[in-house]
Amino acid sequence: MRYISWLLQMIAFIVLLGFALKNGQPVTLHYFFGYEWQSTLVIALLVFFTIGAGLGILATLGIWFRQRREIARLKREISEIKKLNSNA
């Protein structure tokens, strides 16, 4: 199984490397108030993909912390119920 994983990682790397080599053209991104950024297409895509992934992770953190608090509360309730049942 480990060899299949390495093979898939190598294939993904080669495909992404080929994508990067074929898309090395310079692009200019225009922002508000006359700001602009010049870079290669691959770098621009990588930057915006990273920003999007980071924002997605930040969006899920609230739900994740809420679920952890709920799990901790339910575990406390279970332990209290077990104590009550063992004393009876």
Number of E strands: 2
Net shape: elongated
Measured distance between first and last alpha carbons? 51 Å
- SSE-based structural type: mainly alpha
Q: What oligomeric arrangement do these chains adopt? A: single chain
Task: Provide the low-confidence segments as ranges.
Answer: none
Taking all residues together, what is the mean pLDDT?
A: 90
Quickly count the domains: 1
Order of helices and strands: HEEH
| Adjacency order of strands in the biggest sheet | 1-2
If you had to describe this structure to a student in words, what would you say it looks like?
The chain is mostly helical. It has one domain (25-87). It has two helices and two strands. It has helices at residues 2-22, 41-87; strands at 26-30, 36-40. A two-stranded antiparallel sheet has the order 1-2. β1 (26-30) and β2 form a beta hairpin. The chain is elongated, with a radius of gyration of 25 Å. The termini are far apart.
Summarize the helices and strands and which ones pair or pack.
Layout: H1 2-22, E1 26-30, E2 36-40, H2 41-87
Antiparallel strand pairs: 1-2
Summarize the structure.
The protein is mainly alpha-helical and 88 residues long.
